[in-house]
Structure formats: structure tokens, C-alpha cells
Specification:
Layout lengths: L35 H25 L3 E8 L5 H8 L8 E5 L5 H4 L5 H4 L8 E5 L8 H4 L11 H6 L1 H21 L2 E9 L2 H13 L9 H7 L2 H15 L6 E5 L3 H17 L10 H16 L3
Parallel strand pairs: 1-3, 1-4, 2-3, 4-5
Helix pairs in contact: 1-11, 2-11
Length: 298
């Protein structure tokens, strides 16, 4: 499929092994798209291509795919998933939200949660928030560690040691997935503090959107700088060759969706998947079946 647009993904990529400053990534960047209509047209192209490629992805059953979305409140995770994945076959896609862990989940290692919902070959799993919450929200609120399964030595070494250990465990986990042909695509939807405020106000002013707002959202907003620091450290530590992070500008939802769709479509396309080839015996059987069906017309 020939696309009328080409998007350079390098400005969004967190280079593995290099320190980045989150402040250097502009949440309002639009990569040269002139306006909302141009981005919408690009999104439609990518959604259409993604639908076609998912069919080959499903039938070939050579890979599985995990797509991770992390973001602060009101960045647009739900709407991005809705728009970008609008053309895919629901049979081959599952969406999981990683909210606060249950009692059972707290009694297991933190990576037990994603292990339970790993996608099978040919399918896609979307994580709306993910196991990365354990080095983000839990880092900002270390009291959430209470009741978790922690080795005593981990607790005694201090929190800095614990976060580094979890970063290492995550990297090893994703490396193992890659070795087993499960690809991991990771998106941080980067919304500005100013734009988050505007979206919160819209939720409060529109009665039909009141349900989206929680007083707890304001409490978390007060910890903005802490979250920025936690995200920056996490992005630096866990963007790897096999599972790099993409920082997606999120102030313009129309660009954010087009950008995410373009990256997903490109990554699947570069797997160079093909429909299964039929052997000689199967081909002969198909030809015979065709002749039988054609004979019914006479």
C-alpha cells in the first residue's frame, strides 16, 4: 500500500542507553502536519493499512505483539486506542487496564500480572497502563509497596536499589519476550501541564464528561514534578534495542493518534509477513474442490 505521507520516527524515539531530558520533547510538536485535516487523512491511511496487516499477522501466527500506553491523566490513552485500532478485527486484539493490584496480585512478583495476559502468536495485546506503573505511580507513592511481595534484602537496600532492580527485571522480561517472537511497542503520551489543565476544565464544564473527572486527579496533578522525574528515569532505564520507548506529543490529539498509528503500522510492515503458502498436495486438493463447485453450475 502506497501512503501519501511519510513520518520520521526518530524525533519520538528514546535512544537506548542514552540519557534524555523529558523537557526536550515538545508536547505540541506536530512534525510538519499542516492542520487537523491532514493528520486525520494520514490516520485513515494508517488505520486502513493496519487492518490489512493485522489479517496477515493473525493468519501467519509468527509473532505476538504487545502495545503499551503510559501517560498522565487526560493525555488521551483511551481515545488513541479507540481511533488507532478502529479498523482491526476484535477477534485478534485484547485490551487490558492495569489498575491497582488485587490482593492476589500483591502476593505475586509484580511481573506476574502481565505474564497472565501475554498474547498468543498472531494476536495483539494492548496494555492501557501496564506493569510500568510499578516504577511510576508506586515510585511517587511508595506506600503502595506495603503488602507487596518483596524480598527482605530488597527492602533493606533502599528504594533507589529497588527501582533499579525493577528496571533490570523489566528489561530482562522484555528481552525474553523478544527472543520468543513477542514484540513490545511502548508509547508515552506526553501531555503538557497547561493542556492537562484545559482538559480537566472541559470535563468539569461539560455534564456529559463529568464522569471522567475524579478529585484524585487533582491530587496527582499536585505531584507533577515527581511524575516527570519518575517518567524520565524510567524512559532512560528501559528504552532498549528490543523494546524502545516512543515519546508521543499529546497536546494535539489529532497528531498523537496519527503518529501512534504510523509507528504501529510501520513496525508490523517491517516484519515482512506473508500469508501461508499452500503446498502441492493442498493446491491439488483446492483445484479439485474448485472444479466440483464449478460443476454445480452445469
Amino acid at each position: 500500500m502506497t501512503k501519501s505521507h511519510r513520518l520520521d520516527h526518530n524525533p519520538f524515539l528514546v535512544p537506548p542507553g542514552k540519557k534524555i531530558d523529558l523537557a526536550d520533547f515538545d508536547p505540541g510538536y506536530t512534525a510538519g502536519f499542516k492542520d487537523k485535516e491532514a493528520a486525520k487523512a494520514a490516520l485513515l491511511e494508517d488505520v486502513s493499512e493496519l487492518a490489512q496487516m493485522q489479517d496477515v499477522f493473525w493468519v501467519s501466527k509468527q509473532y505476538a505483539l504487545i502495545i503499551i500506553f503510559q501517560a498522565l491523566d487526560a493525555a488521551g490513552k483511551d481515545s488513541t486506542i479507540k481511533h488507532v485500532m478502529s479498523g482491526v478485527n476484535p477477534q485478534g486484539v485484547a485490551v487490558y487496564s492495569f489498575k491497582g493490584p488485587s490482593e492476589e496480585e500483591r502476593l505475586h512478583p509484580f511481573l506476574w500480572r502481565p505474564m497472565r495476559v501475554l498474547p498468543a502468536a498472531g494476536t495483539i495485546a494492548i496494555f492501557n497502563r501496564s506493569y510500568y506503573e510499578e516504577v511510576l505511580v508506586v515510585r511517587v507513592h511508595p506506600k503502595f509497596l506495603d503488602g507487596q511481595l518483596l524480598v527482605r534484602e530488597q527492602s533493606n537496600e533502599g528504594l533507589d536499589h529497588l527501582w533499579k532492580l525493577r528496571f533490570d527485571n523489566i528489561n530482562n522480561f522484555e528481552k525474553t519476550l523478544a527472543q520468543e517472537n513477542t514484540r513490545v511497542l511502548k508509547f508515552f503520551l506526553n501531555v503538557s501541564r497547561k493542556e492537562q489543565r484545559q482538559r480537566f476544565l472541559k470535563r468539569l464544564e461539560d455534564p456529559e464528561k463529568n464522569w471522567k473527572f475524579s478529585v484524585a486527579d487533582l491530587k496527582e496533578r499536585e505531584r507533577w514534578d515527581e511524575y516527570q522525574a519518575a517518567y524520565q528515569d524510567m524512559l532512560r532505564a528501559t528504552s532498549t534495542d528490543v523494546a524502545p520507548w516512543y515519546i508521543i506529543p499529546a497536546d494535539k490529539k489529532w497528531f498523537m493518534r496519527a503518529c501512534v498509528a504510523d509507528i504501529i503500522a510501520t513496525q508490523i510492515r517491517e516484519l515482512h509477513l506473508e500469508y501461508p503458502h499452500v503446498g502441492e498436495r493442498e493446491a491439488a486438493a483446492l483445484a479439485e474442490a474448485k472444479q466440483q463447485l464449478l460443476a454445480e453450475q452445469s
